[in-house]
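Q: Can someone sanity-check these two? First one:
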Amino acid sequence: MIPVSAYLAVSALLFSIGMYGVLARRNAVLILMSIELMLNAVNINLVAFSRYLAPGEFTGLVFAVFVITVAAAEVGLALAIIIRLYRNRATVNVDEIDLLKW
C-alpha cells in the first residue's frame, strides 16, 4: 500500500508546476492549462484523503467529481472568452489584452 505522503508529494509537485505556469506564462491558453493542473492536484488530495481517512465513504470522491464538473464548465467559458479575444485583438497574450482599460 502506498502511503498518503506519496500522494501528497505528487499533488504538491503538480500544484507547484501549475502555480509556476500561472505566474510565468503570458499565453492565455497555457494559463488555463496551468489552472487545470492545479485543480487536478486538488483532486488527488481529495481522493487520497478520502481513501485513507474514510475508506468506506465516498465523500472525497464526490467532491472530486464536483471539482471536475466545475473545471469543465470553467474551461468551456474560458475558451469562449479566449476565442472572442483572439478574434477582436488577434492575440492571446495576456499582456496585450487591454479591453477593460478606459
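And here is the second, same format, sequence then C-alpha cells:
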Amino acid sequence: MPNNFMITGRPGSGKTSIIERAMSILRERGFRAGGLYCPEIREGGVRVGFKIIDIMTGEERILAHVRQREGPQVSKYRVNVANVDELSEAAIGRALREADFVVIDEIAPMETHSEGFKRSVLDALDSPKPLLAVIHQRTQTGFIGGIKTRDDIKIFEATESTRAELSEKLAKAAQSYFKS
C-alpha cells in the first residue's frame, strides 16, 4: 500500500491549499506534521520570489527571487541553492525524526537544483511515514519523473472538479496508513 501521496495539477489549481487543508485536518485529529512549504513572495501584488519554510519551527529563508544575483535560473528567478540545501535537510530530517507525517510543497524544478533537497526527498519517500507532497505536473523526466514512476506513490490531480474533495481524501489516505 502506498504511503506517499502526491498532488499535481496546473498552476493555480489549488495544490498548496489542498495540502494545507489536509495537514490541518490531520493536525485536528492529533497527528504532528513536519517538512516544508514554499509560499510566494509578493510585492505590490506581483510575485517576485518564493520562501522555503520549516513547518515545525517556522524558520524561513529565500528559495528564489527575481533580485537574486547568483544561482541557477528558473524562469525569471534565481535559486538560492545553499538556503534550499540547509533548510530542506533540516526540516525534512526533523520531520522524519519527530513528526507523524511529512509534507513537502513542492517537488519542482527550482528545488531540484539542490542536492540536499533531493537526498531529503528520497529519505522521506523511503521512510515508513506518510508523505503528502505537491509534485510538478509537466516534468516527466529526471528526478521528478523518477519519483512519478515509483510503486509506493499515489498521485491525485487537482482540478476545479476535484479540488473540494482532495484534502479529505489525502487526510484519509494518510490516516488509514497510521491504522494499518
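A (reply): Looked at the second one. The domain at 4-38+92-179 is CATH 3.40.50.300 (Rossmann fold). The helical segments are 15-28, 81-98, 115-126, 142-148, 163-179.
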